[in-house]
């Protein structure tokens, strides 16, 4: 009688195992089908949305990097450009602007057309640690 119970339990567990194996195969096939459908339906839209989300961030990062480069070269630009623009009193001055607006150059805020003499009274060094224009 004990052997009969063991055989029946073994047969029951074998059937459950086969059924479970069949269910796993069905679930696996269904999940593959769902994944394929999601990829064909949502992937292009998802990629576009990701691009829309990250493009402004990337653009801001690159703009920031360009601004950092401009800030880094600013002392060199402010030192060299006045010589090129015939404003020797402005060479190396922190206040030098040197931008053209409507065809008129704005040299600096204190002296919009530049200082005519050799030494500007408002001259401040672009380079840290340098006190005067000498």
Give a brief outline of the structure.
By secondary structure, the chain is mainly alpha-helical. It contains one helix and two strands, in the order H-E-E. The chain has a two-stranded antiparallel sheet with strand order 1-2.
Describe the overall structure.
There is one protein chain. By secondary structure, the chain is mainly alpha-helical. It has a two-stranded antiparallel ribbon with strand order 1-2. The model has no long low-confidence stretch (mean pLDDT 78).
Main sheet characteristics:
2 strands, antiparallel
Number of strands: 2
Which ranges are low-confidence, i.e. pLDDT below 50, for 5 or more consecutive residues? Answer: none
Output the structural class.
Answer: mainly alpha
Number of helices: 1
Instruction: Give the averaged pLDDT, no decimals.
Output: 78
- What is the N-to-C succession of helices and strands? HEE
Give the helix level as a range of percent: 55-70%
Cα shape: rod-shaped
Percent of residues in β-strands = under 5%
**What is the straight-line distance between the termini?**
115 Å
């Amino acid at each position: 009688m004990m052997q009969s119970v063991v055989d029946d339990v073994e047969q029951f567990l074998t059937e459950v195992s086969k059924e479970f194996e069949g269910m796993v195969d069905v679930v696996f096939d269904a999940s593959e089908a769902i994944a394929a459908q999601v990829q064909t339906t949502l992937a292009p839209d998802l990629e576009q949305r990701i691009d829309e989300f990250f493009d402004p961030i990337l653009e801001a990062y690159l703009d920031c990097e360009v601004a950092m480069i401009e800030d880094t070269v600013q002392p060199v630009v402010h030192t060299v450009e006045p010589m090129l623009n015939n404003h020797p009193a402005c060479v190396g001055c922190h206040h030098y602007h040197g931008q053209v607006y409507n065809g008129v150059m704005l040299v600096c805020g204190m002296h919009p057309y530049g200082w005519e003499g050799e030494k500007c009274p408002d001259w401040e060094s672009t380079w840290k640690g340098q006190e005067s224009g000498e």
